[in-house]
Structure formats: C-alpha cells, structure tokens
Amino acid sequence: MASYHSEASSASSRRTSASPIPHRMGPMEYQPTVLCRCRAKAARWISWSRDNSGRRYYKWPTSSFIRDLLNDLHDAVWSLRREKDELFVAVREGQAMARDVDTARRELAALKKHVVETNAKLVLLKEQNRRLEKDRCMLFFVLLAICGLFVMVWVMN
C-alpha cells in the first residue's frame, strides 16, 4: 500500500499541468440534485469530445433493459416517421387522383348532357322525317291521281 501511495505521489509530481477542465466550475460550487423522469438522481458528466470539450451534462444511470427499450423506441419512432412520410406521399397522390376523378366526372356529366340534347334533337328529327315521309307519300298519290286524270283526259280526247 505504501508503494502505491509513493507511485501515485511521484506520478502526480511528474504531471506538469493541471487538468484542462476543473472539476468544479467555481470554488465549492453547489448545484441542487437533478432528477431524471424516473425520479433517479442524474449523474453529472464532463464531455471530453473535441466538439464539446469541457461541456457538463447530466445522464441518468441506465440498465441494459432501459437501453434496449430506448433503442427499440428509437427504431419505432424512425419507422413511424418513415411510414408517415410514405402516407403523406400516398395522400398527395390520392388527392391528385381525386382531382382527376372529379375532372373526369365533370366531363362525363357534360357528355351525358350533350347525349341527352342530341337524343332530343334526334327524336325531333325522326318525327320531322316521319311527317315528311307521310307528306311525300301523300304527294306521290296526289301526283299519281293528277297523272291519271291527264291520261284519262288525253285518252278521251
């Protein structure tokens, strides 16, 4: 044990500079306990990464179950976001198709109206054709009668 202490003291004497980040922000700085959502005390950590060097943050202790659960939830959230995006695209396509169907329905209604109008004109033309055919037959018989009279008058003379 004495050898360990002497090694530690000699190691500390060899160090030329202090820690780049002090353990306390100010002298004997006190901060109240921070609790996470599960009411456990969150540990205060110091970041040693290049981007956030010296930044203090809180982290609550996690078990492997909680880590797995959080990873599963993270995956589920991303899956739902992708599904939401796909549904958003499908809704946009559906709305475009609905507009196309609505346009086609309006065109169909206009064509049906045109067919009804054309059929009404066709009925009128058929009726007029029937009357003209009847008049033609009458005219033929009248003409035949007149010719017959001329023939009788000519034969008698």
UniProtKB/TrEMBL annotation:
Keyword line: Coiled coil, Membrane, Transmembrane, Transmembrane helix
Coiled-coil parts of chain: 101-135
Transmembrane intervals: 137-156
Region (Disordered): 1-25
Top-level division of the source organism's lineage: Eukaryota
Low complexity biased stretches: 1-19
Protein's name according to its UniProt entry: Zinc finger GRF-type domain-containing protein
The organism of origin for this protein: Oryza barthii
